[in-house]
């Protein structure tokens, strides 16, 4: 098997882009796609610096983010801002936040948080070293949600060697194969 990788932050139509497969975090599996679990769930967290939180206070509910400077991420140059997702005891909230800074990558967000510019929403694994070093504090921790990390494959391509590759990844990851719902709509990008 040969692999050619193309890393893009935005959502790409893998069929139109002539890709054999793509990776999605979350339930962003579109019509006529199959999802194969390839990694453990990825947990998203809100973080802020202790200096920022001492000045602005600690939000206890996602609705209180309106009183904070939130650092946004835009996954593609012309795409919408990414909505922050929260779940607790059956309550699901997708929050559009506001702030002075918007980035297209996680790493400048981490620097902005460390420098006290506001709160950011990102994968916990990206922030863990800074949390452990005391650069960042977790915020709204009881609202944090984990999302599946799946390889998505167009249903039409699961024949021959494509099926063999899917079976290999499935076996190595001990994953479940999931088909998407044809009427999927993602609230994070509306």
Automatic annotation (TrEMBL):
Residues 3-143 form the LysR substrate-binding domain. PANTHER family: HTH-TYPE TRANSCRIPTIONAL REGULATOR, HTH-TYPE TRANSCRIPTIONAL REGULATOR PGRR. This is LysR substrate-binding domain-containing protein. GO terms for molecular function: DNA-binding transcription factor activity; sequence-specific DNA binding. InterPro entries: LysR-type_TF_proteobact-type, LysR_subst-bd. It comes from Serratia nevei. One of its GO terms (biological process) is DNA-templated transcription. Belongs to the LysR transcriptional regulatory family.
């Amino acid at each position: 098997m040969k692999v050619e990788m193309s890393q893009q932050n935005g959502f790409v139509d893998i069929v139109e882009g002539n890709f054999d497969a793509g990776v999605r975090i979350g339930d962003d599996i579109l019509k006529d796609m199959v999802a194969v679990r390839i990694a453990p769930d990825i947990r998203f967290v809100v973080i802020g610096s202790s200096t920022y939180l001492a000045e602005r206070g600690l939000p206890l509910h996602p609705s209180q983010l309106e009183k904070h400077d939130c650092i946004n991420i835009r996954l593609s140059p012309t795409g919408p801002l990414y909505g922050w997702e929260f779940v607790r005891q059956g309550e699901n909230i997708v929050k559009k936040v506001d702030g002075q800074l918007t980035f297209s990558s996680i790493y400048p967000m981490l620097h902005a948080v460390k420098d006290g510019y506001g709160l950011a929403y990102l994968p916990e694994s990206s922030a863990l070293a800074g949390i452990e070093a005391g650069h960042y504090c977790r915020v709204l921790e009881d609202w944090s949600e984990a999302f599946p990390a799946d390889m998505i494959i167009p249903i039409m391509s699961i024949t021959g060697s494509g099926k063999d590759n899917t079976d290999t990844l499935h076996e190595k990851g001990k994953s479940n194969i999931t088909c998407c719902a044809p009427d999927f709509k993602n609230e994070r990008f509306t």
